[in-house]
Each structure stands twice: as structure tokens, then as C-alpha cells.
User: Fold ArsR family transcriptional regulator from Baia soyae.
Amino acid sequence: MSYQVEAGNSIAYELLLSFLLYKRRANLKYLYKGIGWISDVQKRLTAEFETELAEFEDLAFSNVACLLIENCPQNQQVGSFLSWLEGLTAAEMYELLAPHLREVDSQILLDLEKQRNQFVYFLSQWNEQYFQYEKVENTLKKAIHLFNKQKGQMPSTQVVEHFARGLQIEIEDMKHVIMIPSIHFSPLHTFSIFREKIFVWFPLKTEPSSIDELMSIGKCLSDRKRLEILQFLSIQKRTFTEVLKQIGGAKGNIHHHLMTLRAAGLVRVHLTGDSQFCLSTRKEFALELQEKLHSVIYPT
Assistant:
């Protein structure tokens, strides 16, 4: 695969991701933030806004907002991005979104102004009541600087693999990959796929020590089912259905094992289509495990 890789250098990407994570609450048990993050956030939100958030279900516009962040000429600050977005006409938003949307997402182009107004309101309140107090801007800037420094030293596929901790993009005709550092979704990666373009939020190692990471890996390796999964996936990449058939057990249990392995950096995701993926073992983790163990036993 041959595609161009660049950094998404706007803090608005993290604002968007944190908002969607709170709304969807998916995979929290595998993230550094953890399930307790929800109650921590709720303590900061007003009762009125919490009620509005609970009733707000239409996230279609939020799903494509990364395209607008990318095209905003003043996207370095949350306020300037939201002001720019609020000033766009429906025709201008259509021109920015339509060329990149897949057919399945085309309904988003209906009633853009109403969707935009709701989006701006909720993200403004989210920023005012929660996100601005997280003080993540400097951390994200340092991550982007490191990414830009290293991306020229390896092929684009290796850049994605390295920073996303196990991601191979194998979608035909994919031309652009926007790599975005993320705190809220660490240690996992997540992505949004469009025509010829994909946005990838990659994890930052901001919280766990080498001991914490060793404990996470040790937890994975102490379970027989997970070892069987790693062995099965080490031969060649497999679909979830193939893993389920080979390993056996309940679908939910296999999903849990795979997510635990992914969070520890032991399993790689291969994106092969819009909603299609395969999995394989990240054999590199054996060397990484040795290095982490060395740093604990021989601290500097």
C-alpha cells in the first residue's frame, strides 16, 4: 500500500474525540481513563447540560467533523475553530464534506445548518465545562513534534504501525492518512474512514510506567485463551469469526480477550475495507517486553 501520511495538529481533534467517547462510552474498560472517567466528568457538568447530552442522539455530523477540522484555516484553538465553523454556509459545508463522504454517509448532507448548530452548541459547552480544564494542548504539541520528526525516517506504512501500536491500512485506493495524537483513547487507536482518506487517533503513553505496562502484558499472558489467540494469530491474519471458530467460547468473551490483547499492544488490526478488518499477533511485543523488563530490573 502507498499513501501519504501527515499529522493532524489541531487540539479540536481531541476535543471531538473526548466528546464522542463520553457519548458512546465504548471500550472505556480498556482505556487508561477507565469507566470511572464518566463519573469524574459528570461532577463538572451542570445538571442541565448533562440532561441535554443524554437526550442528544444524532451524532452523524460529529462523525464527519474531523473533515471540517482539517479544512479550518484557524484550527489551532478550539474557540477559533468553532467560530469559523459557525460562520460557514450550508453550501460551503457541502463543498468541504461531499467529496470525501462514502455513499453510506451521504444523508449527513441534508439539513447541514441545523446539524452544525447543534454540534457547535454541544462542543462549546463540552469545552467550557470539561475539556478546557484538561490542559492537554502542550502534551499534544510535543507528540505532534515527535511524530513530524520521526515520520520521515520510515515508510508510511511503518509510521502508522509504529505510532498506532499495531495498525495496518490495507484499503485499496487509500491515499491520505491523518495521524492524530490522542490522550483520551489511549492505549488504543481509533479511526474514521472516508473516501481515499482516513483519520487515525494514535495513543500517547502519558500515564502507565514500565511496571504498569508489564502488569498489563503479564495479565494477558497469564490467560490460556489469550495465549491460544496469540498463537493462532501468529500464523497469519484472521477475521474475528475465524478466531471465534478456532478458540471457541462466547462471542463476548472472545471480544474481551482481543480488546485486552490490543490494549496491551499484542495484537495488530488490519483494515481491509470500510467495515472489514483482520487481526494478527504483533510479534514485536516480545522484544518490547524484554526492554520493559530490563528498564524495571536495571533502572537508571
Summary: The beta strands are 4-7, 167-169, 176-182, 190-194, 197-203, 267-273, 276-281. The CA atoms of residues 266 and 282 lie 5 Å apart.
